[in-house]
Known about the structure:
Chain A is mostly helical. Chain A is built from eight helices and no strands. Chain A has two domains: 1-106, Orthogonal Bundle (Rna Polymerase Sigma Factor, Chain: A), CATH 1.10.1740; 110-194, Winged helix-like DNA-binding domain superfamily/Winged helix DNA-binding domain (Arc Repressor Mutant, subunit A, Orthogonal Bundle). The model of chain B has no long low-confidence stretch (mean pLDDT 75). The A-B interface holds A 29, 32-33, 36-37, 40-41, 44-45, 47-49, 51, 54, 57-58, 61-62, 65-66, 69, 116, 119-120, 122, 124-127, 129-131, 133-134, 152-154, 156-159, 162, 174, 177-178, 181, 184-185, 188 and B 1, 3-4, 6-9, 11-21, 23-24, 26-27, 30-31, 33-35, 37-39, 41.
Amino acid sequence: MSETSGDTSADPSAAEDASLVADSLRGYDAAFAELVRKYKSRVFATASRYARDEHQLQDLAQEIFLRLHKNLGKFRGDAPFSHWLARVAASTCLDFLRKERRNRETTALESLAFELPDPTTAAAFQHSQACEILGRAMASLPPEDHWILTLCELEERPVREVAQITGWSESNVKVRAFRARQNLRKILVSQNEA
Amino acid sequence: MKPETDPLLDSLFRAARHADPDKFPTPLGFETRLMARIREERRNAFPAICWRLSPVFASLLVLAVVWLGRMEAVEPPAETAWFEPGAAHEELLFLAFPADVP
Lengths: 194, 102
């Protein structure tokens, strides 16, 4: 889901998507299966930013496509299908984070403890190490903070696109992202000290 | 999108950004399972709607029962008493029979 803009009339892929959506709405399951085949790698990439294991990832990806199927009639076709899919995926992921938060209310804080390497001495974090540290720290953030940081920092989406996805104003996105970064930093420092 | 610079956060995000594409491979038969679930949900759609509407149906039923009960309470009891056999109405019963009855 890396596209930030697109012209549906010039893009043959967009026309193909619109045709597949129309066929799906007419009840052709094969057309929707084709959409799933086409976009499943993107959906899995997005879901992997939120899911903690493979089982959760599959459930979340399936939930995204189910919600997509249920709301297919709301796709107006004035923007590329991939943008609309990104919005559906993002809102499903936020709901997933909220549900996860409720389920993990009783998680002991000790289990979130980790050790941070010094960023000034270590040239760069290893990818797996960074994912683990961020995953644990972001799990203790409020769902909206986790969501906005994933969209802005990990997926590097422009503020305008994040505003479209979240339905917040651009200034609200900036303020929330700023606060979420501050909260994340507090968690990282406090857990490191503990 | 950098509202502030923080070496710790920036280096963490930079490292985590480049996800390993093979970390979570798309499982085999994902579409098949998904389409099966969609078909199943479609089959269960009508009973699910009925179940969701059951409180509405129950409320309507209760209202109907209450309304019927009130209607019965308002009905005048005199009409039934008119035809009841009893000492006070013996002459009326007698007049009600035709004369040629054996």
